[in-house]
Specification:
The complex is a heterodimer of chains A (about 210) and B (about 450). Chain A contains eight helices and six strands, in the order E-H-E-E-H-E-H-H-E-H-E-H-H-H. Chain A has about 210 residues and is α/β, with parallel strands linked by helices. The termini of chain B are far apart. In chain B, about 30% of the residues are buried. The N terminus of chain B is likely disordered. The chains are: A alpha/beta (about 210), B mainly alpha (about 450). Chain B: InterPro entries: Rab-GAP-TBC_dom (IPR000195), Rab-GAP_TBC_sf (IPR035969), Rab_GAP_TBC_domain (IPR050302). Chain B: It comes from Anaeramoeba flamelloides.
Chain lengths: ~210, ~450
């Protein structure tokens, strides 16, 4: 079974811990304790007939703890940036989080934008369209969730699993030796089997 | 915080219980027994009433007794005397109320952050469900952020203040005890400047741990391979002074000693936690298992006496040794923090430029659509923004003109390095491409030759 690291980031009290608690314990507290430093939880899920173990890193949202985050981004295969749809400033600071991610990893990492607290539809300040725009601009995945009602939380982690597996397969293909790739490509383009060629050459010599 | 609370159960002090009620009763019995012997001396100490102004003035018998635990009924009066907060409190009568009055209605980033965290401080306890108590917590945290805006508010402060309030200290007592903890007992920059001293403490603790216990090296190395640093686990211990990390009785015992002897006890207790859990740490097979065990092992410590005794059985651990490690590590940490500050500055510039871009676009649109009046308005808002920015920069330059030069030097180095890396990576990329092309061409030529041979044969 393969292990993957996922880093949760986002402003203070947007619901990072709550989303993780909903996913792992299927439980919700209106006020979860504020996270000091970094927390860690893990769970196995089944995606596309494969079992995948997700290691979830839950980071503190306050600005002065951000100095510790880069080292987690460095080693994670997916980053989830969470914001609160009832809080504009948390949406604005996505830009800052993105830059910390890109500074560490470039475009090498999958990023998931998550708008949390859809249960508070009346207080909404950030529309789904805005989120869509922001995500499409950077080629990120996006989703709106509610840790309180559980809306879209399972789907979020299924999508995470799928995209991680995809990326993993791509990586494995890239690691294959270069020459093999070239020859196989040549064979396809010329429609010639190297074994047959050899046989004919031998026969010609005789 | 992964406080796996057994629902509905609370310990003697009203905190959520991390273990069974039977165990809780046993612990209370032990605590009361130990306290009987020392009660007379503590009574005397109480009558001295605030003559102690600093930790160094605490006499040796008191220090020894504090290691055995202060009787809980005396803690409310003894802690403020012991740590010296009562002294500062007496000298600054009325300060607390004044500072709150002077700043009524004052809003700052830290007050906003405090508001976010108020409801998230011991959320499972009834104590903070009443408005009165919530206001107390708010007042103390606000007052401190007004007193020392440079430190302001940092997550984990809420737990320390909340802890004191729950134990029954008044608002003012809590405030002054908190002040002495942040300003006297802990290193200066524990909660400010990118948590500089917390980082130094964590790293020097890891150094200490590795040098003291050789058996821990392999497990720690396996964590390193996983990309996890030990600081993740110990940071919470040091920043919250073990509140929420250890059972309440243990936390109280640690505070007894911290107030009497200073914060180096935190190093001792942390070392002891590893020592107690040696067998279980070595049992862990995989690094994720190891990590979860390390994260939760502090909550499993039930016997406070065992913890304190093992902490003091560690020999020759002096402040000198700790300071040596700290001095070794601090330049590295400071360097990284400087780099981060430069990075932050660059980020701010970037964001400003983006905003300017947006504003200019907006202005163009507005001139097309609206009167010239609106345009001048938006310009004036822009200029006022710039003014405020300049003001901030001026403040910065006044504060640390020396460090600014250093920062610039480092920033140049960083930029040079980045450029070098870019160049190197681009060169490597080009080389790779050329190789690929060559390979392709060679293959093509070979196959062409082979095809021609075939044709000839046919």
């Amino acid at each position: 079974m393969e292990n993957f690291k996922i880093c949760f980031m986002g402003d203070q009290s947007v619901g990072k811990t709550s989303i993780i608690n909903r996913f792992i314990y299927d439980d919700f507290n209106i006020n979860s304790q504020s996270t000091v430093g970094v927390d860690f939880l893990s769970k196995t899920i089944f995606v596309e007939n494969e079992s995948v173990r997700l290691h979830l890193w839950d980071t503190a949202g306050q600005e002065r703890f951000r100095c510790l985050i880069p080292s987690y981004v460095r080693n994670s295969s997916l980053v989830v940036i969470v914001f609160d749809i009832t809080n504009k400033t948390s949406f604005k600071s996505i830009e800052f989080w993105m830059d910390t991610v890109q500074n560490e990893r470039g475009d090498d990492v999958i990023v998931f934008l998550v708008g949390n607290k859809t249960d508070l539809e009346d207080e909404r300040q950030v529309s789904l369209e805005k989120l869509e725009k922001e995500a499409n601009k950077n080629g990120f995945l996006y989703l709106e969730t509610s840790a309180k009602t559980g809306h879209n939380v399972k789907q979020l982690f299924r999508k995470i699993g799928i995209s991680i597996l995809k990326q993993n397969k791509k990586r494995k293909e890239l690691i294959k030796p270069e020459l093999d790739e070239n020859t196989s490509l040549m064979n396809i383009s010329l429609n010639i089997d190297p074994n047959k060629l050899k046989q004919k050459e031998e026969s010609g010599c005789c | 915080m992964n406080y796996q609370v057994k629902l509905g159960l609370f310990d003697y002090y009203g905190f959520p219980l991390a273990y069974s009620k039977k165990q809780e009763k046993q612990i209370q019995k032990l605590a009361k027994k130990a306290n009987k012997n020392s009660e007379k001396i503590w009574n005397k100490f109480e009558k001295k009433n605030g003559k102690v102004s600093t930790i160094t003035e605490v006499d040796k018998t008191i220090k020894k007794l504090s290691r055995k635990g202060i009787p809980h009924q005396h803690r409310l009066t003894i802690w403020p005397i012991l740590c010296g907060s009562k002294y500062t409190h007496d000298q600054n009568r009325g300060y607390y109320k004044r500072i709150l009055k002077e700043h009524t209605g004052h809003l700052s980033p830290s007050t906003q952050q405090i508001e976010h965290d108020l409801a998230r401080t011991f959320p499972m306890m009834d104590f903070f469900k009443s408005k009165e108590n919530m206001d107390k917590l708010r007042n103390v945290l606000y007052a401190y952020s007004f007193r020392n805006p440079e430190i302001g508010y940092c997550q984990s402060m809420n737990f320390i203040v909340g802890f004191f309030l729950i134990l029954g200290f008044t608002e003012e007592e809590t405030f002054w005890m908190f002040v002495t903890i942040v300003e006297v007992i802990l290193p200066k920059k524990t909660y400010s400047d990118e948590l500089q001293d917390t980082q130094i403490d964590q790293l020097s603790f890891e150094y200490l741990l590795r040098s003291r216990y050789k058996w821990i090296r392999n497990p720690l190395d396996s964590l390193d391979e996983m990309g996890v640093k030990l600081t993740v686990i110990t940071q919470q211990w040091f920043m919250c002074l073990f509140i929420c990390c250890l059972p309440t009785e243990c936390v109280l015992r640690i505070f007894d000693i911290v107030f009497a002897e200073g914060y180096k006890i935190l190093f001792r207790v942390s070392l002891a936690l590893f020592k107690i859990n040696k067998a279980q740490i070595l049992k862990c097979n995989s690094s994720p298992d190891l990590f979860t065990h390390l994260k939760n092992m502090s909550l499993d410590v039930i016997d406070p006496d065992k913890l304190i005794n093992t902490a003091f059985s560690i020999r020759f651990l002096t402040t000198k040794e700790i300071n040596k490690h700290r001095e070794k590590i601090s330049p590295n940490v400071k360097n990284e923090i400087n780099k981060r500050q430069i990075y932050k500055k660059q980020m701010r510039k970037k964001l400003k430029q983006r905003q300017k871009g947006f504003d200019e676009k907006y202005n163009k649109n507005s001139t097309n659509e609206k009167d010239s009046n609106s345009n001048s308005n938006s310009n004036s808002t822009l200029s006022s923004k710039n003014n405020s920015d300049q003001g901030n920069e001026n403040k910065l330059s006044k504060k640390d003109s020396k460090s600014k030069n250093e920062l610039e030097k480092i920033s140049q180095e960083v930029e040079n390095e980045n450029e070098k890396e870019k160049i190197q990576s681009s060169q490597k990329y080009q080389e790779k491409e050329e190789k690929l092309r060559k390979n392709n061409q060679e293959d093509l030529e070979k196959k062409k030759i082979e095809i021609e041979k075939e044709k000839e044969n046919i």
